[in-house]
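Objective 1b. Sequence-to-structure analysis of Adenylate/guanylate cyclase domain-containing protein.
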Amino acid sequence: MSTLFTALMARPIVFALVVAAALALLPVAVWLDLRHLSDVALREQAQSLDAMISDIRGYYAKNVVGRVNAAGGKAVPVHNYLDVPGGIPIPATLSLELGQVIGGRGENMHYRFVSDFVFRSRPPHELDAFERDALRTFRREGTGKPVIAALTGSFFDRQIRLASPVLMGEACVACHNTHPESPKRDWKVGDVRGIQEVEISQPIAANIFSFKYLLTYFAGAGIFGVAFASVQWRQARVFRRMNRELEEANSFLAAVSLKISKYLSPQVYRSIFSGERDVVISTERKKLTVFFSDIKDFTVTSERLQPEELTRLLNEYFTEMARIAHEHGATVDKFIGDAILAFFGDPETKGVKEDAQACVRMAIAMQRRMHELNDAWRRRGIEKPFQTRMGINTGYCNVGNFGSEDRMDYTIIGAEANLAARLEQTAEPGGIVLSYETYALVTDIVRARPIEPISLKGISRQVVPYVVEGLIDEAEAETSDVINEYSEGARIFLDFGQVSERERERIAAVLKQAMDRLQMRPQAGQ
């Protein structure tokens, strides 16, 4: 059975057809049971009526016809007809004795004629509460209440009692008012002589198997339901186990993907895990804006600092630069020692011009952040913090997955990427140098000045570098409230927001003295 239900569950259309057929069989089963119940009831009623008529016919033949014939055709209707030759029962006696005939069969139907005015020669009728109430009601309301019914019974059977009035006719009144044994002599036509009562009992349990088709249907439906619930319970257990395993797998994959995301650029990470990019060896030519930066004299700085301090500073530097790169939409290719390689245009691009402008804005934001970091590092006791140089170039590069089937790297190669690295080497500490290709795309947002053409290693042509001076229409006062200049033999750091009114005069005097000495130094050397 379980195998059958599993097979049905595996075929939803077949399962739906089976359920629809089962639902369609319900009215068929009900109709078959109703027809069977009707047949049984008709058969029982016909048999009861046949037996009742036979008993009445026998009673009539024996106590009426037989006695009349025995008396030579002379009939005397009296209540004690058995004691009188040719006597036949009067209606009241007939009713009493018919009740005994019908009820004596011991079936579920009984008839009784009772009255509280019984002839003196007969035993009085014992009336129960229902019969007494019925008599009182009929005598009070007359024919206005022709039938009184009462339903009784228990959980296993039901009974109905029907009582109707027996009214006095003219012949009855004449007989009762003159008969010497009558307990009442003032009867009138229409008076209630007594009641005739019909009682039918029906055992409920006896008919329960009359609904054999419906019971068979419900038994089958119950078995089907139990089997279905069992299969569902088993499947629920399987699903719970699968969900638990999936949750564990998802948690593991989420943890792994979170760790992997630390090794990939956010754009590359999203494109791989969303299915936009396949992890296969493939490259394509695209026009990119390439950014390259490194720290000036990093080797000297690393020798001057302890390894722990150097590691902390370098990680802080990379964290801040990567955050700015992410804010501007750059794809950070890699960290090469102290250098950063990033590019715009893949896997996401807003257009060649927009990518170039975003790259320049990113570089300016990075240099500004470096001023703030240098201030914080000096306060922590770092005498000579990092100074970065940046180069930017725009051109066609090969971009994609390079490597082997087992180990690959998403990166760029090409002469244009090398040019960005060469331009960075020509920049001053804290400066940004552009190629002409990039400068042509950002002239409407950046102030830059060309310097003498230079020949770079690996580049066949002469290159005109452009030094970025700032964004167009940007007030100098808004660029920074900090002066932070450093060179061999000189270090100037001035934070205007931190200088109090009392210190300004002293600092101004120190700066004036320094200016005077700087102006005097060449004269002393002449």
